[in-house]
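Person: Show me a sequence?

Helper:
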Amino acid sequence: SYTLPADTCDMTVIRSFILLMAEKTAARMRRYGFKARTVSIYVRYTGFTSSGKSRTPGGFMETGLEIYRAAFKIFESFMPLKNSVRMIGVSVSNLADIDGQEVLFAEYGKKKEMSAVMDKINTRYGGLKIKPASLITADKFGILKKCGVLSKRVW
């Protein structure tokens, strides 16, 4: 979890930040050879009240987009926002080893392959050299710099 550079109700910023957390979580998970079934999200608001929920959507998740979709679905249950968001955390649990099983659907296989290539490039050159375009919003809001993603740190 990370504290935002400024409290916000801007859904574009919040979505971008949740995607950032999901991408970072997925990259770490894949680096250690895991996939997850459960996603949790924790939100702290202005005034330090907070909410947290978990969800087990069905199958295993390996990509940032899969984690993001599950996490944002949980976040939508907190709507409408009563206060500005101060901090967001995304985590996964109910982990299992990636088994290397043949992918049944070609489209999913392409997503897994693309994630693996992105991981290699980002690990080699540090930070998020390749990232979803929607993270540009997080960058403009100062989130990527605050989270250390623009540094040489490998996540």
Summary: The first strand starts at residue 2 and ends at 8. The two ends are 14 Å apart (CA to CA).
